[in-house]
């Protein structure tokens, strides 16, 4: 995924619309929609504002386009996680790592969600549906881990554990960005987030079944966005 620097033009393949979306994602992740102007987006792509408005008349339409792309990426992840896709099977570690990378790639949506929902009511319902879909994936994976005797979670602890795993795995990037001032993620930051989740499972691990799942760590360099 190609992105722009703070002052340079975007360098990526594809049509103008796709280049606008890529540039906007990078700028929104860096500073948030409220602090990015359409003039800056156009300048980053190397087009005039009239050309930008031909594709996207408002910043709201840009946010909705980015959410639609995130939604599609999240659904691809969900299908793969639930075993409905083609290709090699993914380990729990790989799946969680993939989700973390996805959250980081679209981190402005999570970091600025409350502000976006307040100014863009059209975003609230689809975001809630997407969140429910992803939480369902987390629940399915947890129940699979229980069936495979990786963890032993008492019935009364399943719902609290699901909620905590969802919160940490979805908002870890927001925490690092807001609380630690981290704007660029490296493999160490991804490891940090993954290990926060691993600690949630720690009390429930079955020693004989946990060797291939924990401790969680990165295996690939993260994409930069």
UniProtKB/TrEMBL annotation:
Residues 37-56 bind DNA. This is TetR family transcriptional regulator. Keywords: DNA-binding. GO terms for molecular function: DNA-binding transcription factor activity; transcription cis-regulatory region binding. The keyword DNA-binding applies. Residues 14-74 form the HTH tetR-type domain.
């Amino acid at each position: 995924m190609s992105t722009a620097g703070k002052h340079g033009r975007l360098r990526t393949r594809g049509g103008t619309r796709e280049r606008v979306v890529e540039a906007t994602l990078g700028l929104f992740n860096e500073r948030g929609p409220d602090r990015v102007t359409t003039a800056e987006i156009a300048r980053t792509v190397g087009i005039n504002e009239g050309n930008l408005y031909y594709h996207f008349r408002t910043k709201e339409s840009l946010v909705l386009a980015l959410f639609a792309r995130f939604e599609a990426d999240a659904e691809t992840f969900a299908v793969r996680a639930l075993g409905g896709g083609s290709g090699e099977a993914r380990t729990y570690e790989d799946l969680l790592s993939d989700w973390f990378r996805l959250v980081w790639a679209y981190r402005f949506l999570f970091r600025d969600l409350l502000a976006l929902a307040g100014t863009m009511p059209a975003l609230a319902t689809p975001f809630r549906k997407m969140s429910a879909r992803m939480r369902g994936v987390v629940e399915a994976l947890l129940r699979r881990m229980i069936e495979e005797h990786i963890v032993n979670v008492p019935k009364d602890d399943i719902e609290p554990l699901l909620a905590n795993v969802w919160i940490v795995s979805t908002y870890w990037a927001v925490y690092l960005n807001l609380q630690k001032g981290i704007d660029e993620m490296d493999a160490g930051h991804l490891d940090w987030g993954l290990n926060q989740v691993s600690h949630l499972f720690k009390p429930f691990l079955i020693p004989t079944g946990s060797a291939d799942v924990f401790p969680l760590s990165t295996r690939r360099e993260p994409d930069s966005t």
